C-alpha cells in the first residue's frame, strides 16, 4: 500500500518506517536520543502530504522552540518541495495558541487586537493590584506572585480551581482573589499573558463544543515533538484537540523520558507514560538504533543515565563504531580561565584540521559560565553565537550594572544615567526624569549634574527630590572612592548600596538566581583588569565585536536550549559538584532534582556526534570566594571503557597530574577524577576540606554513590594508593 513514489522513506529502518506509515490511529514513539524521533515526525509530515492524505493546513505540528519549528519546516520542504508552503499550524504551543486565540478572541471576552504582556508588564500590573488591596508589596512581592500564577496556569488552573493550600500561601489567603482580580484586569486591558495563550483556547474548546468540533474536522493529523516536556495545560489542550468521539485519532507524539528537563517549569513526564491510557489502541514504537553518535559517546551517555531510578529504561545501540573513533575526553583545568583557554585551543586545533566552527558547540549548565568563553573568543577572534539568549554583556542585569559603573567613571554618560536613574524603582518616574532633562538642556550640563542642581531647589516634589538627592550623593561618594578602594570592591559596593543587588534578591522569578550569578560573574571578571576604566574599555570592545549570523561560528548555549540539536564536536565545561549537578538540586536533597540534573547531563552528552570533551576545574569562585571544587559525581558515573582522561596540557600539565607518578600506575584513584587534578602539589588541603564537608553533610546520595561506585568499578577506598 505504499505510495507510488516515496523516496523519502528510503534509508529509514523498519521501526521508523512503521512510525511514518502508521498514519491512522494514535502512535507513540518512545525512544532515546538520536534515534530519529524528529526525523520520523518530519518524514511523517512529508508522507502525509505526498500521499494526499491531508492538505498542509490540516496538519497540526507542535515543536518545543521556534527554532525547531523553522527547522522542521525546512526539513519537510527538502522532502516534499513546495507542498510545505502554507503549513500554518506548525509551531510552538504558544505560537499556535496565539493563532487560535486571534480567531476566537470574542469567545474569550477579548478583541482580536489583544496584546500579549511581557513579564515586566505583568509584574507592574500585579504590583498595582497588590497595593490596591492595601497589602505591603515588599512583604508580598509581585514577582513572587507572578511566579505562582504561572505555576497555576501551567497546571491549567483558573482562579476558581486553585487548591485551598496554594490559595492561602500568598497574602494571608488573598491569593485566589488577587488572581481573579488580575484576570479581570487583563480582560479590561484587552491583554493576555503567556499562560493565557493556552488557557483561553482550552476554555473556549470546553465551553463551545461547536468550535472544538470545527477543529476536530480540520486537523486530520496531529504531531508533537519532545512530548516528555509538556506541562499539564499543554496536555489538556492537546487532549481536547486529539480526543474525539468518532473517527480515528491520528495523533503521533514522540519523546524520551530520559530527556525530560523542564520539571522545574511544570513539565509532567507522566504525560508520556499515560499515553496508552489516554489513547486506547495506541501503537507504541520503540527506536533503538542511534544514528547520531559514536559507540563511545553513546556508551558514556547510556551508562550515566542508568544511574537514575525513575525511568522506563531502553536499549540503544549504534552501528557506528570505528576503532579510530575518539573516546570521550575528560579535561581538568585549574580554574575557569584555564578551562576557557583549553577549549579555545582545542577549537583552533580542530579548525586548523578543517573542521567548521558551525559544527562545534559549548553547552553550559548556568548562563554565567558563558562570560569566560565569550571573552576568550573575542581575544582569539573566533566567531561565536549565543543561542537562546543574549550575549553575556548584553543581558539586562549586566547592562544595568555597567550603567552604574559608567556613570561613576564618566559622569557625563547620560545614556547610562538614564538607564538606571529609576532602577531599582526609587520613585523617579517620568515626570521627574523630564525635569532633570529640562534642567540639563537649559544649562547645557550632563544629567547627573542637572540632578545635583535640581535637589538644591524647590522645583521638584519632596519625594522624588529626596530620592534624587540620595542618588546624587551616592554617585559622589562612589566617585570619591575610585582611587581609594580596588575597583572590584567599589563595584560590589555600588551594586549593594544602590539597592540593585537587593532588587534581584527580592525577586521571586525563575530567572532571578541566574541574574544574581551573572552579577557575581561580572565582578569576578573585573579582577582581570587593572582599573574600572580598563574594564569598561574591554567591554566596549567586546560589545563592538563583529557578529554576522551567517558566518561560520561556534555555538554557545545552555544545556536546556540544546535540546533536539546535534553537533560534530561538543564541549561540556563546568562538571563540578555544586555547578553540575547544580547546588539547588543538591540542596533539595531528594532524588527528583538530582535525577533531573542527570537527565540534563544525558541531553548534553547525546548532542555530540563524534567528539565530546568534558571539563572540570579545581577552583571556582562562588559567591565571591575562591573554592576548591570537586569533580562532578556524573564524571564518576561514566564508564571507563569509553572515557579518556586528557593528557594534553590544560590543567594536568601544569598541576602535577597523578598519572606517570611513581607508584601510581593507575590514574584512577578512589574516585577517578577526585584525585587526578588535586594531587600533591597544589590543592590537596582544599580538596581535603571539601571532601570533609561532603562527608559531614551525611548526604545520602554521596553515601550510596561511593558504595555503588566502588562495587561497580571493582575497587574501594582501601584499594587506592
Ligand atoms: P533527540 O532525542 O536528541 O531529539 P531524535 O530522536 O529526535 O534525537 P533525530 O534528530 O531525528 O533524533 O536524528 C538524529 C540524527 O540521526 C539526525 O542527524 C538524523 O538525520 C539521523 N538519522 C535518523 N534516522 C536515520 C536513518 N534512518 N538513517 C540515517 N540517518 C538517520
Ligand atoms: Mg528530536
From TrEMBL:
Residues 10-294 form the UvrD-like helicase ATP-binding domain. Gene3D superfamilies: 1.10.10.160, P-loop containing nucleotide triphosphate hydrolases, PCRA, domain 4. Pfam families: UvrD-helicase (PF00580), UvrD_C (PF13361). Keywords: ATP-binding, DNA-binding, Helicase, Hydrolase, Isomerase, Nucleotide-binding. Residues 295-564 form the UvrD-like helicase C-terminal domain. The keyword Hydrolase applies. ATP binds at residues 31-38. It catalyses: ATP + H2O = ADP + phosphate + H(+); Couples ATP hydrolysis with the unwinding of duplex DNA by translocating in the 3'-5' direction. It comes from Nitratireductor thuwali. This is DNA 3'-5' helicase. GO terms for molecular function: DNA helicase activity; hydrolase activity. Its EC number is 5.6.2.4.
Amino acid at each position: 500500500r505504499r505510495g507510488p513514489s516515496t523516496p523519502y522513506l528510503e534509508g529509514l529502518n523498519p521501526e521508523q518506517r512503521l512510525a511514518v506509515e502508521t498514519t491512522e490511529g494514535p502512535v507513540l514513539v518512545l525512544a532515546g536520543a538520536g534515534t530519529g524521533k524528529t526525523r520520523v515526525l518530519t518524514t511523517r509530515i512529508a508522507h502525509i502530504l505526498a500521499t494526499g492524505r491531508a492538505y498542509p493546513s490540516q496538519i497540526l505540528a507542535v515543536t518545543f522552540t521556534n527554532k525547531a519549528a523553522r527547522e522542521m519546516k525546512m526539513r519537510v520542504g527538502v522532502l516534499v518541495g513546495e507542498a510545505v508552503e502554507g503549513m500554518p499550524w506548525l509551531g510552538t504551543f504558544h505560537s499556535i495558541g496565539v493563532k487560535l486565540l486571534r480567531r476566537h478572541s470574542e469567545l474569550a471576552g477579548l478583541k482580536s487586537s489583544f496584546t500579549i504582556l511581557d513579564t515586566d508588564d505583568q509584574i507592574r500590573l500585579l504590583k498595582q493590584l497588590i497595593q490596591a488591596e492595601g497589602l505591603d508589596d515588599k512583604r508580598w512581592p509581585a514577582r513572587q506572585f507572578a511566579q505562582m500564577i504561572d505555576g497555576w496556569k501551567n497546571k491549567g488552573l483558573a482562579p476558581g480551581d486553585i487548591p485551598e493550600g496554594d490559595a492561602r500561601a500568598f497574602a494571608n489567603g488573598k491569593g485566589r482573589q488577587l488572581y481573579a482580580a488580575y484576570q479581570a484586569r487583563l480582560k479590561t486591558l484587552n491583554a493576555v499573558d503567556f499562560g493565557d495563550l493556552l488557557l483561553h483556547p482550552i476554555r473556549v474548546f470546553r465551553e463551545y463544543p461547536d468550535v472544538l468540533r470545527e477543529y476536530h474536522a480540520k486537523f486530520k493529523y496531529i504531531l508533537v515533538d519532545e512530548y516528555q516536556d509538556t506541562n499539564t495545560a499543554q496536555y489538556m489542550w492537546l487532549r481536547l484537540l486529539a480526543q474525539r468521539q468518532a473517527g480515528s485519532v491520528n495523533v503521533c507524539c514522540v519523546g524520551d523520558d530520559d530527556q525530560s528537563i523542564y520539571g522545574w517549569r511544570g513539565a509532567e513526564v507522566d504525560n508520556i507514560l499515560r499515553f496508552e491510557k489516554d489513547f486506547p489502541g495506541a501503537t507504541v514504537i520503540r527506536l533503538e538504533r542511534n544514528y547520531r553518535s559514536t559507540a563511545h559517546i553513546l556508551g558514556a551517555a547510556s551508562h550515566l543515565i542508568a544511574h537514575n531510578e525513575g525511568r522506563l529504561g531502553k536499549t540503544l545501540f549504534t552501528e557506528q563504531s570505528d576503532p579510530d573513533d575518539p573516546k570521550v575526553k575528560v579535561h581538568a583545568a585549574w580554574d575557569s580561565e584555564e578551562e576557557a583557554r583549553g577549549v579555545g585551543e582545542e577549537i583552533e586545533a580542530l579548525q586548523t584540521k578543517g573542521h567548521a566552527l558551525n559544527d562545534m558547540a559549548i553547552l553550559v549548565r548556568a548562563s554565567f559560565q558563558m562570560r569566560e568563553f565569550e571573552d576568550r573568543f573575542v581575544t582569539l577572534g573566533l566567531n561565536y553565537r549565543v543561542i537562546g539568549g543574549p550575549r553575556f554583556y548584553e543581558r539586562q542585569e549586566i547592562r544595568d550594572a555597567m550603567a552604574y559603573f559608567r556613570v561613576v567613571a564618566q559622569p557625563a554618560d547620560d545614556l547610562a544615567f538614564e538607564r538606571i536613574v529609576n532602577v531599582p524603582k526609587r520613585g523617579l518616574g517620568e515626570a521627574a526624569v523630564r525635569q532633570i532633562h529640562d534642567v540639563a538642556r537649559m544649562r547645557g550640563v550632563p544629567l547627573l549634574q542637572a540632578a545635583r542642581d535640581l535637589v538644591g531647589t524647590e522645583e521638584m516634589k519632596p519625594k522624588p527630590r529626596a530620592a534624587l538627592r540620595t542618588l546624587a550623593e551616592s554617585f559622589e561618594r562612589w566617585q570619591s572612592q575610585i582611587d581609594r578602594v580596588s575597583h572590584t570592591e567599589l563595584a560590589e559596593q555600588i551594586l549593594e548600596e544602590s539597592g540593585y543587588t537587593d532588587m534581584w534578591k527580592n525577586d521571586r522569578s525563575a530567572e532571578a538566581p541566574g541574574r544574581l550569578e551573572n552579577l557575581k560573574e561580572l565582578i569576578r571578571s573585573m579582577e582581570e583588569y587593572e582599573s574600572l576604566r580598563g574594564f569598561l574599555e574591554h567591554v566596549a570592545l567586546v560589545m563592538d565585536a563583529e557578529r554576522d549570523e551567517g558566518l561560520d561560528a561556534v555555538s554557545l548555549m545552555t544545556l536546556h536550549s540544546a535540546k533536539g540539536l546535534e553537533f560534530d564536536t561538543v564541549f561540556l565545561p563546568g562538571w563540578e559538584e555544586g555547578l553540575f549537578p547544580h547546588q539547588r538540586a543538591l540542596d533539595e536533597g531528594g532524588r527528583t532534582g538530582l535525577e533531573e540534573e542527570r537527565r540534563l547531563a544525558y541531553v548534553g552528552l547525546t548532542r555530540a556526534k563524534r567528539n565530546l570533551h568534558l571539563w572540570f576545574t579545581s577552583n571556582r569562585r562562588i559567591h565571591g570566594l575562591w573554592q576548591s571544587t570537586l569533580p562532578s559525581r556524573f564524571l564518576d558515573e561514566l564508564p571507563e571503557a569509553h572515557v579518556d582522561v586528557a593528557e594534553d596540557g590544560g590543567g594536568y600539565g601544569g598541576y602535577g597530574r597523578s598519572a606517570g607518578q611513581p607508584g601510581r600506575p593507575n590514574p584512577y584513584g578512589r574516585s577517578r577524577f577526585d584525585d587526578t587534578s588535586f594531587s600533591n602539589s597544589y590543592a590537596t588541603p582544599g580538596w581535603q576540606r571539601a571532601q570533609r564537608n561532603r562527608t559531614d553533610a551525611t548526604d545520602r546520595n554521596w553515601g550510596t554513590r561511593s558504595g555503588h561506585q566502588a562495587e561497580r568499578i571493582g575497587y574501594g577506598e582501601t584499594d587506592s594508593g
